[in-house]
């Protein structure tokens, strides 16, 4: 136990089930289980999200990401466990509760004959009865189209939009009611790099300026690292990692990889204390050091290591992973 | 503010917008006109047949005169049942329904919108046939009383057919299956329901079966609204049977309105991103 405690103190990573329940939790999931027939898809999922937090849910296909999100959205009944979204059990959420959620799915190809502005206007109007002094609903259609970069396509029919424009429209409809909690299912699939960057800006703006809580799934680890305050890795129906990208990297390998060249020769060294090692390196060789690169384990390394470990059933050994952690 | 009432108002606007879209889309306009032209051609072809071998000989009522109101009934049934079912199944497949589900009171708005748009589309397709028929087909008779009959029969007809379409659209897995099965069923019903030839020409038991379904009663009701009473000789009991028509259509409407909400709710409850993705995958496989 001493090892684990020291580990936690060192990295700040704590097992999710021991996190104290916070008053401003927007999502709270405890021991969520889902069984289809005789197949257990979710085998006890625990996590929470605070107001304004951006969470990325990662995991291989079939790990249960979509099932988890659909349960939170109130579109699917769970088999067991306690779930609270915006303070309400999604299985019994009413329309006022629904008005506080935004949902963006990846398979939508609806309303092809509608014009962009017309469609946003229509869906915005459903939120008008839920406008409060603090939260003005819906968003202004013109401003919204500006924000997602569809202003010049306002009069276009939805079916004539490109794949990326279509997804931006889906995001726009998802946030037209100024949701407190936004679900994004692989939001940037099919985006070109520029659209992707614009989208990342939008996510930051929503979480920073409007305190929107965002739960997104993605297969783009780089995106998860850029967007998310916290990353959850779901494998084999369980959350196998929960922390910031940086914290997770330390859990996989606490060593830092240092690369440099000296006298035309390449060197690679793995050091527990990267900073200290580099300091000594310069003290010893000074100006001779060139092309210095200091690299901690990337999210991709973490992801591969964790998913592989749980898929091969080799969970255990080190402290700080999976079940042993609870 | 009553949110349900508010959503119903949004649904009315939604239905009008959807209907408007069919008037500005080349494909939809084309199908209105094509339907009308095909049926008009059939009717004009029939106008040579003045029913010599039947009791209608010499009344001035040709087969075209007799079939015109029935054709309107066919358009109404196709609009009310087939279009509703097909649109519902399509909306399920492309995510329109799931979108409505993700919106507060969105399913209310969706359903009201669908009722409005399908009704308007059915009326439009009937109008596109009615106008040229009045000019080109002899023997039709338009009176104020007939106009009133036309209104209540069409209104009751929509009430009877829309819920049936909604039920069918909820039960079938995809739009292709809906169209495939429903077209066969409706065609069979149309053949036995006295639309293109008097029901008295069919064996008694067939005519009884036909009278259990709304197609026959719609045809009868519409014939009563624009045919001279001389045409009564070929009708069952020699009467327009308005009371029975209202009763039969009303019964179908009541049955449909009773069952449809359950079926619709069950279908909507099952909608999720996973089922949507699954259907998209299947649809793509079919194309590829």
Concise synopsis of the structure shown:
The complex is a heterodimer of chains A (326) and B (288). Chain A is 34% helix and 25% strand. Chain A has helices at residues 2-11, 65-73, 95-99, 116-125, 141-147, 163-175, 193-209, 221-227, 245-252, 274-285, 299-311, and strands at residues 25-36, 39-50, 54-58, 80-85, 101-104, 181-185, 213-217, 230-235, 238-243, 256-262, 265-271, 289-295.
Summary keywords:
heterodimer, A: 326 residues, alpha/beta, Rossmann fold, 6-stranded mixed sheet, 3-stranded antiparallel sheet, 25% strand, globular, B: 288 residues, mainly alpha, 11 helices, 77% helix, 0% strand, elongated
Estimate what percentage of residues of chain A fall within beta strands.
25-35%
Helix content of chain B: over 70%
The residue ranges of chain B in which pLDDT falls below 50 over 5 or more consecutive positions are: none
Our count of domains of chain B comes out at 1
Give a written overview of the molecule:
Chain A: One of its GO terms (molecular function) is ATP hydrolysis activity. Chain A: Belongs to the ABC transporter superfamily. Chain A: Keywords: Antibiotic resistance, ATP-binding, Nucleotide-binding, Transport. Chain A: It is a peripheral membrane protein. The complex is a heterodimer of chains A (about 325) and B (about 290). Chain A is about 35% helix and about 25% strand. Chain A is α/β, with parallel strands linked by helices and about 325 residues long. Chain A folds into 3 domains: about 1-100 and about 180-185 and about 210-255 and about 300-325, 3-Layer(aba) Sandwich (Rossmann fold), CATH 3.40.50; about 100-180, no CATH class; about 255-295. Chain A starts with a helix and ends in a 15-residue tail after the last helix. Chain B is mostly helical. Helices cover about 75% and strands about 0% of the residues of chain B. Chain B is elongated. The chains are: A alpha/beta (about 325), B mainly alpha (about 290).
